[in-house]
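Record passed on here:
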Amino acid sequence: MTVHSDIKDLIRRYLQAWNERDFPGMVALFTEPATYVIPGGTLHLPDHAALNAKLKEQFAALEADDFSHTEIRDVTVQNCTDTSAMARLHDVVRLRADGTALDVIDAVYICILQEGRWKLSIAMACTPGWNLR
């Protein structure tokens, strides 16, 4: 596999775990520590237990709005170094059970090669189309 296909597979596995609400599966795909950059601020999550708690809190809020699943229109990957890459997710749509959109964002994930496996390290929510401006 190439770095690009490895990273796209990592994002695919993360989306699958996300949509299945598989918290251990999601958490296992991240480095320790991990960082989330979101509109409300930056969260530095020192370990997988903290990330797990953050994800459960996030899902409780989403499900209060009838969240069903997330779809991603496109993923592009750019190598940064031999051990780092950036995945840009375009049109990340969180959908309700009736098919209407809760929201649409773009996202950036910084991925790190750690012990021979690619992992997510930094997750950043972005305004749609941010990189086209």
